[in-house]
Amino acid sequence: MRLLFLNYECPPAGGGAGFATLALSRELVRRGHEVDVLTARAPDTPAIQVVDGVVLRRVRSYRRGIHQVGMGGVLSYLASAAAALPGLARTQKYDAYHYYFGTPTGMLSLLPGAHRRRPYILSLRGSDVPGYEPKLDRWHRLLWPATGRVWRGAAAIIANSAGLRDIAMRTSPGYAIDVIRNGVNAASFAPALAAPRLRIMTTSRLIERKRVDTLLRAVALLPDVPIDLQVAGDGPCLPALKRLAASLGIERSVTFRGFMNQTELARLRAQVDVFVLASASESCSMAVLEAIGASLPVIATRVGGTPEIVRDGQNGLLFEVGDAAGLASALGRLVHERGLRERLANGSSALAQREFSWENAAVRYERLLAAAIAKHTAANGQM
Description:
By secondary structure, the chain is of the alpha/beta class. The protein has helices spanning 16-30, 70-92, 137-153, 162-171, 212-220, 238-247, 262-269, 286-293, 306-309, 324-336, 340-355, 358-380; strands spanning 2-6, 34-40, 48-51, 54-59, 96-100, 120-124, 156-159, 177-179, 198-203, 227-232, 254-258, 274-277, 298-301, 316-319. The strands form 2 sheets. It has an 8-stranded mixed beta sheet, sandwiched between helices. Strands 11-10-9-12-13-14 form a 6-stranded parallel beta sheet, sandwiched between helices. Helix 4 (162-171) links the parallel strand 7 and strand 8. It is globular, with a radius of gyration of 21 Å. The two termini are 14 Å apart. The model has no long low-confidence stretch (mean pLDDT 91).
């Protein structure tokens, strides 16, 4: 198959959906398909870039930063992609299209052009689903006449977790939605021996929804436990988080690392004891998947699709959103319960290898795309 994936984010810019786009594209190329990705340019990236056989076609987008797209970044990507898509569809003759996010990226499917003559599938990722993030509900209501057309026109709709599918079906009933979770490249290695300090890592965009403040407050509730907390990521909440750490008296226990690339993150994961994600909402966190792929125990909030990845007591521990005391208790268990950290780490390694491979995800996407192409061809004749 010759495919075009579309996502307004792709590494080095963006978060988990961008990394998932590139990882799935790589796996499909490895399986013999041709995949282009129409995405946004980031600093120091060329307009056309080939990564492991995937052709990244980057268009102009005026983002606030690596982790911050902003309305200007979204609208400028849509304008640039809208200008590029008709010509690409005409000259490259793709068999099918894959839009990441119903809103905003999926809106490109409504534009006139040669791409309208071929089928597309749609991946729901979280913020594009009504009801996932309450502060966006007003925008979803305003945009639903267009968003609904995008959903109805898709040959298949995919959510990256059962939790996200449930939200979509509750708020937008009447659609058949498949679940294909993200994958991870699992590493088989024994967890490192415990250090004198509890070494904690979290990585995310530093935005309010990720609730890194809860993790800082939990660390402050453990004054008798030597802690080394590494916060990887950047975003608008960084100054406030630094002020909070100082006010809690834990600034010496916390290192704000800023943006880190994938190589740097992998190196950091190999040096810590536990990964924490205190987010208020998640669909299928790539950060959590990468942590379990690195054989780390994970402590995370009981939200969205996270319990599908973090099995409480098997490869991690769950707590409620905003519950700093509950998070502190979970961290304390890793220190005081003999063998718990190693048992959870081994559980992560086994789970990653058993259930979360990109190969399995690619096979399922491959089938959906092939079925969409076959159905379209039968209905319309060979294009």
